[in-house]
Amino acid sequence: MRSRLGGRVSSILANPASAAKVRGALRRRSGRAPTARRAMLWNASGSRPPSLATMSVGARFPLEGESVRPGNLRTVAVTLNAAVRRVAPGALSVVAALVVDGEDMELRAREGQARVSYGAAENPDLILKTDYGSLLALSEGEMPEQEFLTVHCQVELLTPGKDDELLQLMRMILGVLHTG
After folding, report:
1. What pTM, to 2 d.p., does this model score?
2. How far apart are CA 21 and CA 120, in angstroms?
3. Higher-confidence residue: 158 or 3?
4. Most buried of 30, 41, 89, 94 (most Cβ within 10 A)?
């Protein structure tokens, strides 16, 4: 088998000390099958995987340059879903169709749980249309809520009273996004 392997790989396997390092790097860690790259990087340096606290340090620094609309707005749904799962919508019960730059998303809150998914909403109580730039400015606190509601979005109310429930839920989501 060694004769079929070329160059570096055969020299690593020929050296017993190097082969032992490679085998050690590929061992299972904490019950999970490691990816070869992750295991080799962490074992080669003799260190452990970076902690969440270490990785979050980079999140505290401001981004450089202009924010650019993502090529796929599924990221908006994922971000909103992560935020809405951290709030407790209580007795709110609303289904909203969110249309961001022409792409459909569904915000659904019922029985104390809420979620946002990418795709068209079934039987929405209201439809909110906006653009990515305005939604981003609102979520980052760069645009007042009143300006967003009066200038940068269009709401089509299909079930009376559900606009107030959506507004309450959106305020809770914005609170999560602003506090991080």
Report:
1. 0.60
2. 51
3. 158
4. 94
